[in-house]
Structure formats: structure tokens, C-alpha cells
Amino acid sequence: MKTEPQILTEEKPLCTLCSERGELLYSKLSDSLFGAPGQWNLFKCPRSNCGLIWLNPAPQAAELHKVYANYYTHDVGSESLARKGVKLVYNGLSMLIQWPIGLAQARKRMQYLYLDDKFSGRLLDIGCGDGVYMRFMAGKGWKVEGLDFDEQAVRRARNVYRLNVKQGTLEEARYPDHSFDAVTLRHVIEHLADPLKTLRECLRVLRPGGTLVVVTPNSESLGHGLTHEYWRGLEVPRHLNIFSLTSLRRCARELGFTETMQNSFTTATGADFILDESLALQARSQAGNLQGVEKKTLHFQRTLRAILLQYKEHLSLRRDPSIGEEAVLILQKR
Ligand SMILES: [Zn+2]
After folding, report:
1. What is the CA(242)–ligand 1 centre distance, in A?
2. What is the sign of the dihedral through the CA atoms of 117, 120, 122 and 127?
3. Residues 179-212: tens digit of each pLDDT
4. In CATH, what is the architecture of 9-332?
5. CA 247–ligand 1 middle distance (angstroms)
6. 208 alpha carbon to ligand 1 midpoint, in Å?
7. Alpha carbon of 198 to ligand 1 centroid (Å)
8. Residue ranges per domain, the chain?
9. I want to staple 231 with a disulfide (CB 3.0 to 4.6 A). Which of 142, 214, 224, 244 is the partner?
10. Under 8 Å CB-to-CB from 20, ≥6 apart: which residues?
11. pTM of model > 0.90
12. Cα–Cα distance between 192 and 36 in angstroms, integer?
């Protein structure tokens, strides 16, 4: 078996948003999802108006490619017919519950990344992968462009789906000022070493009046509260910074947006997936050496629990708007 190359790291004692010294939250976590080597610590900013969580020590910039060596955007394996069938039946039945409680409508909005109430224009999707969202929005009349660091995903987007996609970082892409009507980052900023720098660049390439949409795991979620260090949103060592509604709002303030100029909220639309994965990570870890003996019935119970928790989370948002599994920030450029 080939041994994984070690990842060289650097100390990150201070919060990247407010420069406060962090406090240890979790120690010695390992990558149980994609097997990147090493043991990792997460620190949390103690300021109540920030609360950012970050990886410390973190991989050095030149080492970051190593944490993505076995990452899933490389694997485009297809689902079995049986699984597709079960999903289809589940989706049909769940609509009977999701419509009356408003979850179906919330999911629809998430599918558009909250651009469903905007006139179509030129859209840049950062972290576009092989272009699922780009294809959806192209179908709605948007002129779509994408950006991703993953060479294989970019090749697929270009060759299979004929999409206009660049490979690399936003800074490297050097788009002219005011190029886009909308810029979207779904599950991207948690992977960035300097999220504020990238968000500033997003605002530069947006036209005045244009919309910036950020979606990211929410560290104050119900799921994190339930599963702690097993919560799927932590994803060490690929998530360098983990946000919450509070720390996203802090980002917006650092970018020059006041409370009234931003729209920020949390959502339970992706909670079934995040909760199911978190409960699976927890079960696998607690099973210890029994790994692999997890029975189908247990898996069914876990998935059902995740679905029910999603409904609970969605309904609880009315009372406590900060506990959705994902946090959303929407900014309109002046
Ligand atoms: Zn902070």
C-alpha cells in the first residue's frame, strides 16, 4: 500500500476575520471522509460577534493540493438503478410533507441559489465542479461562466457539457471590473485560507447592483450541536474556516455592508444529507473495530432519523433562525 505524503503545516493562532486569539475547540481529528493524512485541531474565536472556527495548524499554501488528493469531485461514479428508484419514491412521498411545511419551497430557492427573483444576466459560479448549477441556470436564461481549481471537474464541464469554465483561483482568473450580474459561491469559502480577500474580489467583478451569494456550513447548527466533532461540516483538513450566521455577518461588515444592507439567514434545505453523514461518521467512530458490520436496518433507521431531524430543524427555524445546517449571505453591490 502506498503511504500518503505528510502535509506541511503552519500555525494559525489568530482569527482571520477579527484577529482575536483562538481557543481550542477540538483536537486530534482525522480525515475519515477522504483519508488525507495527519491529525488536526479546530480553534474557535471567543468573540461573541464573530465565533469563527478554523483549522490550526493549517496546511501550507503549497501543500493544499494534498488534502484534495482523494476528493469526491474526482469520482463521478453513477448511482445504482435501485438507489435511483428508492430516491424517486422518497422524493414523491416527501413532497406531501415538504410542501405544507414550506421546505419544498425553501429547497426550490436553494436550487436557484436565491437568484429566482432576479432578471437573468451574466453569472459566475465559483467552485462550479462539473457544472450542475451552471446547467440549471443556463436553462433559466442566464449566461453562465464557471471557475474551479479541480482539473478533472473543469475538463468534464468543458468537454462533456460544453460549459465556459476556467481552472484556478478567482484572483488568477483576472476578470475585468463589473463583469457579472451575479456571483455565487456554494460550499467554497470554508475551503479558502483568506475568505475576505476572495469576497472582495467577488465584489470587484460584480457590476453595481449585482448580487453576491454565499452558502456555507453553519457551525451553530442543530446538527453540530448533536454530533459535535463528527459533524459533516467540519471536514478537516479541507475546511480551513467554518462559519456561522454571526461570522458571516461579521464578514459582510468587514466588506463594508451594514446589517440593513445584507440578507443573511440559515436553512435546513441540505440538512438531510449533512445530518445523515454526520450520524454515519458518529456511528462509525463509536463502532470502533466493528467498522463494516453496520447493518442495512441500522442504516435505514439513521437515514429516517436524519429526515425527521431535517423537518424538526426546518420548523424550529421560525423560533431560532440561526440553527439551520447551512448559512446564507446575500449582498447587493452598491
Ligand atoms: Zn473572530
Report:
1. 11
2. positive
3. 999 999 999 999 999 999 999 999 999 999 999 9
4. 3-Layer(aba) Sandwich (3.40)
5. 7
6. 29
7. 18
8. 9-332
9. 224
10. 14, 45, 46, 47, 50
11. yes
12. 17
